[in-house]
Amino acid sequence: MDTPDRCPRCGGGFVCEAATALQSPCACFAVRLSDGARAALRERYTTCVCVPCLRAVQAEFEVTPPQAPSPPPPGQ
Questions:
Q1: Is residue 69 part of a domain?
Q2: What total of structural domains would you count in the chain?
Q3: Is the overall model pTM greater than 0.85, yes or no?
Q4: Domain span at residue 45?
């Protein structure tokens, strides 16, 4: 696994701890990604991205629950 000095999505500096951590897991392990977000990341990037970018990509794939229709105004 590559350990880039820069995130390929935002350009920010970071180190991929998944490849180097011996005593504790990488922070990215705590980010839950949907199948769609994971597939999009695989399509776009060949190296790791930073945790804030993982969260941002996941947010793009989160579905907003549908809202109940508003009741009609009184008198209608």
A1: no
A2: 1
A3: no
A4: 17-61
